[in-house]
Amino acid sequence: MVIKKLALENFRNYESETFAFADGLNILTGKNAQGKTNCAEAVFYLCTGSSLRIRHDRQLIRRGADFARAFAELYSRYGRVTLEARIYENKRELFVNGNRVTRAVDFLGNMNSVFFSPGELRLVQDGPDERRRFLNLSISQTSREYCTALLRYQKILDQRNDLLKERDLGMVMDTLPVWDEQLAAYAARIVVKRREFLKKLSPLAEAAHSYLTDGREKLTVGGEHRGGDEAEVRMRLLEELAAARERDLRLGFTSVGPHRDDVRILIDGQDARGYASQGQARTAALSLKLAEVEIFGELAGEKPILILDDVMSELDLPRRKKLVERIHGLQCILTCTHAERVLYGADCKKIHIHGGKIVP
Q: Over 60: is that where the pLDDT of 342 sits?
């Protein structure tokens, strides 16, 4: 899977610009705050329908403009595909091969990407929310079934939480079992999909981490322990919801389920969240992303686009070289201030950006 063309109009600081990408390594160079990351963000947005940097799509619209547009032409094993997003103040429109899609789930999976930036340290250092978000974004790109289950689970969860705040306890206790049945059904699907994903991710992340550290450290990744098939997980979750019912009423929200689960990340047997240094956390997060690339290749039948935003400045020289070796054969969009730091003889296409424009 490769992206050949990216056209941006009023997107972030771009008034109108078109990028032509090579099949291998593409290096976006330029000083800080010129638009390198904005270009990388646009590619990721067209893959997932969301941005890792902002909460509201309207923040993507260039100051003074009424709308933003991002368009990509790519080639997958199925042939040519075009993706387009038109973003307005209070809405957006998504298109696949010129046809408008009304559901975000239908936009996902047409172009897969893995995004890494220095901010991905949150994946290791911050709370469970970041690790769940990593799982949700990654699995959703290759499984529309998972994405659908996740959306429906969240909707039912919100309704259950609203119910828990009602004052009529009799009505609440009569109604909760109905919501719990629906919630547990989608929750079980989410739990099983996450478990399958982590089973694939763990050995791949361990191998990538060993490669980047020359075997000096061991990375271990694991999830919550809910064994069994989907039906068994559903029954166990129903039991957990019933057992937590009185506590949930006191708290006013649902305290058990996959929206509360976490992923354990260990370095040499120690919890990376409290133990790892900045450098160790960065390498661990990068290893998870490299493992994600391998999983996409297996599940989708072709490697995703790898987006590396300002990662080289955060790595020492040996790990930069290791990373350049590791990404050989992938289409990679890499942003940095000085291209010579990462070339090391690698074939690449350099694109220099200044003030939201491509310049010679």
A: no
Distance CA 61, CA 68 (A): 5
Taking only the tens place, the pLDDT of each residue in 14-68 is: 999 999 999 999 999 999 999 999 999 999 999 999 988 888 999 999 999 999 9
Residue labelled with tokens 């020492």: 316
Question: Hey, what domains does the chain have and what are their CATH numbers?
Answer: 1-112+304-360 (3.40.50.300), 121-303 (1.20.1050.90)
**Any residues with CB less than 8 A from the CB of 124 and at least 6 apart, and which?**
265, 272, 273, 276, 281, 284, 285
More confident residue, 328 or 238: 238
What per-residue confidence (pLDDT) applies to 100?
97
**pLDDT interval class at 343 (50, 70, 90):** low
Q: What are phi and psi of 315, to 5 degrees?
A: -115, 150
| Chain position carrying tokens 């799982």 | 135
Token pair, residue 56, equals: 């509201």
Compute the average pLDDT of residues 336-357.
79
Residue 201: phi, psi to the nearest 5? -70, -40
Q: Which residue has the tokens 């050949």?
A: 4
- E strands, 199-290, where? 219-222, 264-267, 270-271
Q: Are strands 113-116 and 99-101 parallel, antiparallel or unpaired?
A: unpaired
Is residue 28 a contact partner of residue 339, using CB atoms and an 8 Å limit? Answer: no
Positive or negative: CA dihedral 28, 109, 300, 226: positive
Q: Report angle CA 230, 236, 238 to the nearest 5 degrees.
A: 100
Q: How many Å apart are CA 296 and CA 150, to the nearest integer?
A: 19
- Cβ neighbours of residue 238 under 8 Å, at least 6 residues apart? 180, 181, 184
Helix 144-164 and helix 128-142: axis angle, to 10°? 140
pLDDT at 95: 98
Task: Summarize the chain as % helix, strand, coil (round to 5).
Answer: 50, 25, 30
